[in-house]
Amino acid sequence: MLTEEKKASLKKQLLKMKEEAENDLEQYRDDRAKEDYPNDKTGEISSVADHPGNQGTDQFEREKEMTLYEQAREKLMEVNDALKRMDKGTYGLSEKSGEPIPEERLEAMPTARFNVGELENNKE
């Protein structure tokens, strides 16, 4: 079972992760707001593309940004869920078996909800 000191340390780590995810989401929103003026982002003077490859590059960049946004959003959801489990007193216990999650796993992945063995059994 986790000590109060260890829980406090993990909560601090979770709050830092939450702040990072929120900053990433805010950065994405700021970038999306700039898309009202797409030439500002690409540095193009004209709205006419010089080369079809430019359109592909722009599309790739938009998809990459969307992927990073989704990752940050999922990270924020996982962190918020972990913080709720802390408040409920179920943090550090597997959602599947109710068994304690090893401290090492929680240190490496503070949002962990299951023991490693339980994840492997689900893949069968």
From TrEMBL:
This protein's record includes keyword ATP-binding: no
Metal-binding recorded as keyword: yes
Zinc finger DksA/TraR C4-type domain sequence ranges: 95-114
Keywords: Metal-binding, Zinc, Zinc-finger
Molecular function via GO: zinc ion binding
Disordered: annotated segments: 21-61
InterPro entries: DnaK_N (IPR037187), Znf_DskA_TraR (IPR000962)
One Pfam family matching this protein: zf-dskA_traR
Compositionally biased intervals (Basic and acidic residues): 21-43
ZnF endpoints (dksA C4-type): 94-118
Protein name (record): Zinc finger DksA/TraR C4-type domain-containing protein
